């Protein structure tokens, strides 16, 4: 069973990425043949600065390893080290109806936010389909916002198989964890780099505490009971707390007498504790960049062995050399 997922090096990794994709990826690397990659071609749809892109790639590679992705178990690589992905994206584009891309909500959201649409942004799902299909992936663990893209991938794989023969491409399954499908940001919308509402995984204590203190709440007075339904703080605290701690926070909301600042501090403490080992590992890796770069180089070799095999199969099936 092959498991595959990718993350864009488009900014600091946040806890939505962590709980939605990285933590599942860490667990799944023990259950199959895992391929995890840094989606730098995709990041180019929102970034134009070469120096920042390169730095982000390195930073995300450090995050991957600090969070527990293990190069002994998983193939960890950079998308752009495998140029075959562009050729497969082209082949997929030839069976991809415009309407399928026009219906993608992630594209529509970005355009609605005023991001000027270019061809890469529009064709983003076709490249993502190529990422997945190039490695015969069976399972794709992602957050809910990527579900539609995996559905497009399945659709395109099926179209290729219908036209050029069953078995040309492997049709993948999406895997989304219910509890962490949509991690909310500090404003209650989905946590997202492009909404500026993220809690990053790494950063200084003071800055992160300040971010957590900015979580949006209602204006219930300190002495009054507070709503637990729809509470951003509770939704985030659930990610870190065991049952007893969560019940205590809920009871304190219901009792009244505790201000939101108190709950935010509890959340911050839980956050800080939860990521302490990852922070330490991160620091170690920051001082060992040769190792990090070595992992990526080796990952590229392993990924390439697979990608050339699959692309060769597809090329033959569709009538290319
Ligand atoms: P990206 O970089 O936006 O996000 C990386 C992963 O984090 C998940 N995620 C979330 N999960 C829960 N709650 C949130 N608030 C939240 N925000 C982000 C995303 O669902 C994703 O799993 N297109 C992809 C990258 C990609 C890819 C692929 C993924 C490129 N090719 C092939 C899988 C397979 C993206 O933009 O992820």
Automatic annotation (TrEMBL):
Motif 'KMSKS' region location, chain numbering: 190-194
Subcellular location: Cytoplasm
UniProt keyword Ligase, yes or no: yes
Any one GO biological process: tryptophanyl-tRNA aminoacylation
One of the record's GO cellular component terms: cytosol
Binding-site residues for ATP, renumbered to this chain: 8-10, 16-17, 143-145, 183, 190-194
Motif stretch ('HIGH' region): 9-17
Gene Ontology MF term list: ATP binding; tryptophan-tRNA ligase activity
Keyword terms of this UniProt record: Aminoacyl-tRNA synthetase, ATP-binding, Cytoplasm, Ligase, Nucleotide-binding, Protein biosynthesis
Top-level EC class as recorded in UniProt: ligase
InterPro entries: aa-tRNA-synth_I_CS, aa-tRNA-synth_Ic, Rossmann-like_a/b/a_fold, Trp-tRNA-ligase, Trp-tRNA-ligase_bac-type, Trp-tRNA_synthetase
Source species, domain of life: Bacteria
Chief location: cytoplasm
Catalytic activity line of the entry: tRNA(Trp) + L-tryptophan + ATP = L-tryptophyl-tRNA(Trp) + AMP + diphosphate + H(+)
Binding site for L-tryptophan: 131
Oligomer and partners: Homodimer.
Described function: Catalyzes the attachment of tryptophan to tRNA(Trp).
Family indicated by similarity: Belongs to the class-I aminoacyl-tRNA synthetase family.
PANTHER family: TRYPTOPHAN--TRNA LIGASE, MITOCHONDRIAL
Designated name of the protein: Tryptophan--tRNA ligase
């Amino acid at each position: 069973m092959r498991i595959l997922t990718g993350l864009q090096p488009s900014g600091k990794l946040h806890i939505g990425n962590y709980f939605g994709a990285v933590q599942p990826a860490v667990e799944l690397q023990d259950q199959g043949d895992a391929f995890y990659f840094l989606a730098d071609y995709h990041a180019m749809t929102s970034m134009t600065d070469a120096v920042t892109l390169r730095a982000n790639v390195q930073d995300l590679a450090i995050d991957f390893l600090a969070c527990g992705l293990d190069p002994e178990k998983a193939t960890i690589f950079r998308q752009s080290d495998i140029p075959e992905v562009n050729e497969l994206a082209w082949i997929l584009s030839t069976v991809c109806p415009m309407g399928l891309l026009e219906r993608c909500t992630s594209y529509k959201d970005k355009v609605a936010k005023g991001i000027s649409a270019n061809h890469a942004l529009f064709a983003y799902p076709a490249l993502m389909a190529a990422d997945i299909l190039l490695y015969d992936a069976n399972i794709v663990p992602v957050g809910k916002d990527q579900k539609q893209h995996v559905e497009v991938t399945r659709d395109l794989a099926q179209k290729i198989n219908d036209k050029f023969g069953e078995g040309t491409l492997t049709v993948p399954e999406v895997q989304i964890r219910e509890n962490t499908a949509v991690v909310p940001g500090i404003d209650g919308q989905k946590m997202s780099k492009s909404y500026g509402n993220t809690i990053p995984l790494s950063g200084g204590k003071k800055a992160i505490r300040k971010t957590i203190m900015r979580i949006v709440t209602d204006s219930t007075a300190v002495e009054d009971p507070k709503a637990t339904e729809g509470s951003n703080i509770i939704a985030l605290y659930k990610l870190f707390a065991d049952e007893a701690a969560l019940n205590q926070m809920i009871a304190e909301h219901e009792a009244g007498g505790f201000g939101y600042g108190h709950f935010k501090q509890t959340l911050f403490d839980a956050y800080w504790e939860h990521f302490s080992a990852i922070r330490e590992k991160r620091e170690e890796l920051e001082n060992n960049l040769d190792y990090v770069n070595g992992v990526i180089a080796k990952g590229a070799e392993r990924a390439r062995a697979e990608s050339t095999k699959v692309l060769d199969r597809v090329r033959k099936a569709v009538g290319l050399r």
